[in-house]
Amino acid sequence: MVRFSQKLTALLTATAIGLSGCSLEKRNALISDQVQSSSVYDSTSLQLEEARVGSEDPFGVTGTAAPMVISDEQDDARQYRDLPLEEAIQTALANSRMLRDLGGVALRNPAGARTIHDPAITETDPRFGVESTLSDFDTNLVGSAYFQNNNRLLNNVFFGGGTRFLTQDASVYQVGLNKTTAIGSQLSLTNNTAYDSNNAPGNQYYSSWNTNIEAQIKQPLLAKAGVDYNRVFGTKGIPGLPQGVLIARINTDASLADFEVGVRNFVSDVENAYWDLYFAYRELDAKVVARDSALKAWQTVKAMRESGQTGGDAQKEAQAREQHFRLQEEVQNALVGRQIEGTRTFSGSSGGTFRGTGGVFVCERRLRQMMGMPITDGNLLRPSDEPKLGQAAFDWDVCLAEALSRRPELRKQKWTIKNREMQLLASRNLLLPQLDASGLY
Questions:
Q1: Which of 25-29, 48-52, 245-249 has the lowest mean pLDDT?
Q2: Domain map of the chain by residue range?
Q3: DSSP label at residue 127
Q4: What does pTM read for this prediction?
Q5: What span, in angstroms and rounded, lies between the C-alpha atoms of 272 and 355?
Q6: Residue 12 parent element (H or E)
Q7: Helices (DSSP H) in 161-244: which residue ranges?
């Protein structure tokens, strides 16, 4: 009996393995067929159309000239354009709908880039803007119409007005005005008109019109009452999320302060890029003079060696030649430069700590970027203004007074504090019990 049970168990196990193997092979074959079919890819592909960009080129990118490179031919044929600082600032402000930043803020966080439209966007916000909050106190015209046709079989003659089969045409029209005042009062004036036409034999007339005028007023007496609360929280505001006209006005003023900060930093970055380019030219001039001096020294030693004079040995000639080529390399580096971050606002200090890095080409492209100009146009910008030399003496009291009155960060912080103070005073109103006076005529 035991042997029979063992044989039966072995037979069932072998059968199960065989069946599972067949099904696994079929399953793999099915999956392979499905993968080879395009339906699998169609089901997982995006059904949205690809974004299409217009062929317009408002910034002239397609017409950009080739970048400048190091070559003797281009060095001789290179054209320069003298640029004063005032023109650089005016051009940058005229071409900047977005306030550019050399730190790459627009690439890392496009939503954080400042534009000239930010104050207008804040003021015209459909939820928290000034016009939106003021519209809550406008008078509203509302109207509605309701129509119905009834055919009913009634069990009770009384409810049918004397008939068991009621046929009725009915309609209701409502037109009204409602308004919320600055003190929280809710006023409404409504005209209600009802039309009824039915076959009830108990009616004097087959159809009738009923019209009435309804006037209603509701005035909060404690909580949510008063001008101070409604100008801060508005009609739709809740604790923690005020939507009043005063809060909207403060947000607009704060946005203007942010825009002023952005313009100030932008102009500072333009000036920094301008003087970085000026320094790059002066550094290039100094290294060109050093290279030319080294070239003359090499030529002198080489001539002494060729003529067999004292001091013209091979070691000194090689040393002079090495110094010339090393200075030639420095001249090329001063001309081309490296992609190193230049002087910009908050790079170590508020106005920007002078970096003195890069070269003429790099600094010139950086200035073009800030000015909104093409990256190359065949000319090389060259600063024409010179730094002002002389001792500057500042009066401490005047500097302190101007800093306290002109800094937009301080003005924004004052508006923020005023915002919190008004929210605090208005929130105390919500601690009062809800008590309203209503009237209906």
A1: 25-29
A2: 64-135+234-389
A3: T
A4: 0.71
A5: 10
A6: helix 2-36
A7: 227-233
